[in-house]
Amino acid sequence: MARIVEKEQRMFVTGNELVAWGALAADADIMYGYPITPQNEIMHYWTRLAPRFGKGFLQTEDELSAGFTTLGGVMAGKKAFSGTSGPGNVLMQEPFPWRR
C-alpha cells in the first residue's frame, strides 16, 4: 500500500472528506454508493482520491442496491464500504441477514 501521509500535515477538511481519507488509511478497495445529501460529499471526494491509489467506485441506482453490492464486495473478499444518510439507512439494511 502506498503511504498516504509521508509526514505530519495540517489541512482543513470536512467530516465527509475525512471519511474518504479514513477509508484510504484502512486500505479500502472499493466504495459502492448512491448520491444522497449530505453523504454524497464522501462519494465525490472518494471518486477523486480512488484512482490515484488504485481503488474503485461503483454508483448504484439506489440505497438498496448499494447495500447489496457492498455486501457482495465483502463476501468476495474486498474491503468494501458505502455511506448513506437519513432514510437511506433503512433501505441499506435490507440486504443484511439478521439473526434473531
Structure description:
The chain has 100 residues and is of the alpha/beta class. It has a domain of 61 residues. The chain has 4 helices and 3 strands, in the order αβαβαβα. The longest helix is centred in the last third of the chain and has 13 residues.
Q: Tell me the β content.
A: 5-15%
Write the H/E string, N to C: HEHEHEH
Largest sheet: 3 strands, parallel
Query: Unreliable runs, pLDDT <50, ≥5 residues?
Result: none
Shape: globular
Which strands sit side by side, in order, in the main sheet? 2-1-3
What is the CA-atom radius of gyration, in angstroms? Answer: 14 Å
Helix content: 40-55%
Question: Structural class, please?
Answer: alpha/beta
Beginning-to-end CA distance, first to last residue: 39 Å
Q: What is the overall pLDDT average?
A: 87
Strand count: 3
Q: How large is the count of helical segments?
A: 4
Tags for this entry?
single chain; 100 residues; alpha/beta; three-stranded parallel β-sheet; 3 strands; 40% helix; globular
Short description:
The protein has a domain of 61 residues.
Helix-strand layout with pairing:
Blueprint: H1 15-25, E1 30-33, H2 40-49, E2 56-59, H3 63-75, E3 80-81, H4 88-93
Parallel strand pairs: 1-2, 1-3
Helix pairs in contact: 1-2
